[in-house]
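Our consortium's second objective concerns turning raw sequence data into structural hypotheses that experimental partners can test. To show how far this objective has progressed, the report includes one record in full. It was chosen at random from the queue rather than selected for favorable results. The single chain below, 853 residues long, was entered without modification.
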Amino acid sequence: MNKQQLANRIWESANKMRSKIEANEYKDYILGFIFYKFLSEKEVKLLKANDFKDEDIQALTEEDHETVQFIQDNIGYFIAYKDLYSTWLKMGKNFDVSNVTDAISAFNRLISASHKAVFENIFQTLEVGITKLGESSGARTKAISDLLQLIKDIPMDGKQDYDVLGFIYEFLIGKFASNAGKKAGEFYTPYEVSYLISEICAYFLRDRTEIRIYDSTSGSGSLLLNIGRSASKYMDKNNIKYYAQELKVNTYNLTRMNLVMRGIRPDNIVVRNGDTLENDWPLFEESDPVNSYTRIRVDCSVSNPPYSQRWENSNLEHDARFERYGLAPSGKADYAFLLHDLYHVKNDGIMAIVLPHGVLFRGGEEGEIRKNLIENNNIDAIVGLPANIFYGTGIPTIVMFLRPARPNTDVLIVDASKCFVKDGKNNKLRASDIRRIVDAVINREDIENFCKVVSREEIRANDYNLNIPRYVDSSQREETWDIYSSMFGGVPKRELELFRRYWEAFPHLKEALFAENGTSSVTVKTEDIKGAISAHADILAFKSSFKAAFHGFDTQLCARLIDGMEKVNIAHEEDNICRDIFDRLSTIPLVDRYEAYQLLDDVWTGISSDLEVIQTEGFESTKIADPHMVMKKSKGREEELQSGWEGRILPFELVQQNMLGKELKSIEDKENRLGEITSEYEELADSLNEEEKDAEYFADDSFVIKEVTKKLRELKNDKSPDAGALREKLNKVEELYAEEKKLKNGVKTEKAQLEVLTKRTIENLSDEKVKELLKIKWIDGLISNLSKLPETLVNDFADKIEALAVKYKDTFADVEREIKETEKELCSMIGELEGSEFDMKGLSELTALLMGE
């Protein structure tokens, strides 16, 4: 299975296994054991690379001082053979919870002095919390054994960037966050927000050969890691130094684990468990005689601190971090975190911080700090995010980008509050939303209803209030009614002007649809607006231009992804294809290039997962079918059992549709007939009278076949017409039942045969056939969806123009005339009514009202 499938399986099992344990706590156990597995396997890999045989590894004890030293010098720690993760698995029923506690204790004792800051007490949360995994030693042993089995399939080699471990680790952190409620904010920034920040900051740092990056409230370390990942596109990843500080011990440990597992060198990891606001950090330590206890400044600082948190600000007026700008109020530490981060950024560096929307307009001390930041020219850009985008809080948030020194004095303000899709209870930025925002920040352009470059003079005129709606109006335009067109008909010119971009793209279309009449409106020329638009030469030319722009795109994708599947750079290829799409659309008006990119991203996760497997396991992995494993209850406990087969790369359904159509159609025909039989049962049931429906052969709205057979025997000699009619219906039920039973058995047999045949077909595919199927899976759907973009755009435009014409088709005079005619008809009908004296008086009064008397 690919990394996404493996991650899903582990999450589903872990979520069941945690039982009553809070998601926020259980994450520390499973992530801790994943990290321990990583450390164990890293040590074994080191030993095997240095010609240690299995028997040598099995002899490893801490008494072998020479080997212990060798291992510590290379990886910073030592784990004895008896404490290795693989040894625990081999112990089977002999494994005990004490094996874990003893191993953690030994690990802390055997850390290299040079790696203490990275590894010391890193398993403290796991060690302290083990008692919560069960009320007895036996229960805890079972819970841990289940966890060890659950994570055993996670590969740890990371070769060819097949970073399954890191992916699963991040995936699980995200899943636990979505289930942790308000506590999620303590350790997790959603990947989409993290990636948005990372891409902007990394672009700013793109010309540097080495950098320092810092997160003052690091949580799980995900935001910091994403900055490093994005920056490594422009520089050697080993030239990135990571600084992180986190207040809570358990999340501080998550940061360290996350950084280590991503292959970051220990000497590039500088982490601290502490209060960011209470004690300034990072600092050069006392071991540095030149800089002793002076601030360290970084190229990039990023953070997502707790929102509007109370803090102790007494006696900090002259703290170097705050004295230049002012002291944040004790009830809201938002600007305290911001100023702390800014203080540690180099003059030519950049910082990004996630904050609640209120920091843009709140007054008092915060208003003064905001004024000073603007006058000191520090605020570079503000991005307003959608509400409800973070787990555990629905408040609107912003990302503020700041620089200690800038050549320009304006501020870019982006309103991305409408850029999202619903994802369960939360909102989520799509890949196209992220790219749209990143491009806007990088290009610093005014885009109507989305972003604006605001001068410092305008901000001053607004009393330093940065509330986004003051500068960017992203609200939907309210519907208006033109008084002249409402009275005299025609479509108002000013409402047609709202479609200016379309008239510019289709220069002859407007005159084909509308005629001048010497007023502020125009007359509609045709009854069939949609037909006239779709058949117009400008529209046909537009569609033709789009088609020409993408001519050969499928061939190019085949060459890059299929012919080059074993060498393509997976990490960069989506960006390459995206640029190609943007280039092809550069001369095509109206089509939203970001929507086109979204179509690519929608399929890219699947394509990249397949490519990772192929590059790791070779082309032959495309011809492998694996057991399909599902969790089922067996003997009172959840077990993983096989339920058929699935293609490692090629889905069974894809192979069946394209190579085994005859067999598939046979099954589909039988299933269609089964659906028809169900309808025939319903028709027969509807034909029964109430007495027949109360009989024993009909219960719970369905026929009982045993009782049907019994009733038919009773009716055999009954010659009455009613008995004959019922006998005919019940005979039909028996016939249908026999046919249904035969069909169901046939479907079951043929499905089993088809599964075996599909497996055999995949295993015997030719290389060319594999490539043909991969083209269908990866490319054909994307090409088809891209080709629909012009048609969708034109249809949407035509709907709006037709709606505008319909809106003004009937004038107020027409409506008034129709009302009078309806009143006349109603009065005429009332005149034909008969009733008592008082009824007739009431009707007479109603008639008078309707006639306006």
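The partners drew two points from this record. The longest helix spans residues 721-763. The longest strand covers residues 345-356. Both points have been shared with the crystallography group to help prioritize constructs.
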